[in-house]
Write a structure and sequence with these properties.
Elements lengths: L2 H14 L3 H6 L4 H18 L4 H16 L2 H8 L5 H12 L4 H33 L2
């Protein structure tokens, strides 16, 4: 496996094949998270390997990150731009509807996506490399 195959599998599974139903509810509902993670895991397998231990690793790490919003928890831990912080305090700090509120929301979503993608890719890459699937 090379990193490009892993990256393409990730992008297809997490962006091209994830619909709004999954994206909006996977962190609040086990069934929706499981459906997303199964589709994601098949996408990774198509680009990398069908080794059952590898796929269990991919599914389980993806499920934990998405179902429990670990990217947002990490951002809260380091006092970064978390989605929960923006939703809870964003309107108070900048006023809902203002340009700065919209820009802050967009940047917060971008930071969240980068942290989430980094978590997924790091766990898969180093899992594959060091666990030896």
């Amino acid at each position: 496996m090379n990193f490009i195959d892993l990256l393409f599998g990730h992008l297809v599974g997490d962006y091209l094949l994830q619909n709004k139903w999954m994206a909006m509810n996977k962190n609040a509902n086990n069934l929706k998270a499981i459906v997303h993670c199964l589709i994601y895991t098949v996408s990774i397998a198509l680009f990398t390997s069908w080794n059952i231990y590898w796929l269990l690793w991919v599914f389980s790490t993806h499920f934990l990150i998405d179902r429990f919003s670990l990217a947002d928890k990490w951002l809260n831990l380091i006092n970064g731009r978390s989605l929960s912080d923006f939703l809870n305090r964003g309107s108070v700090e900048y006023g809902a509807g203002s340009n700065s509120h919209v820009l802050r929301g967009g940047f917060t979503a971008l930071v969240y996506a980068v942290v989430d993608n980094t978590m997924h890719l790091l766990l898969m890459y180093y899992g594959y490399l060091y666990i030896g699937f």
